[in-house]
Write a structure and sequence with these properties.
The protein is mainly alpha-helical. Helices cover about 35% and strands about 10% of the residues. It has helices at about 35-55, 60-75, and strands spanning about 1-5, 10. Helix 1 crosses helix 2 (about 60-75).
Length: about 90
């Protein structure tokens, strides 16, 4: 299955997406890609704006970047890209 998210095309089945869909699983259970993208943009913009005024403390390394990613997307995406309680063993999708 080919799917596209954020202007990037992917191929193959993804357990990050809703079944038979190219929409990432999300905390709102939105299956419409356009609607999800709009909500993610608004929420992530607000979170990034907040970080601009209140930066996280720490050393700029991979752990720090992961903290930024978590903060920016924690309101819309599941941690590690899958719903809590999932038994999937994965590597973060980013």
């Amino acid at each position: 299955m080919k799917y596209e998210y954020g202007g990037i095309e992917y191929e193959g089945e993804s357990f990050y997406c809703y079944p038979a869909s190219d929409v990432l699983m999300n905390k709102f259970n939105i299956t419409d890609g356009g609607k999800l993208q709009e909500i993610e943009l608004n929420i992530s913009f607000a979170n990034i704006s907040y970080l601009g005024e209140n930066p996280l403390k720490g050393v700029l390394d991979l752990r720090y970047l992961k903290r930024i990613h978590k903060y920016v997307f924690e309101d819309t995406q599941y941690e590690e890209g899958v719903p809590s309680g999932s038994t999937a063993s994965i590597i973060t999708h980013c």
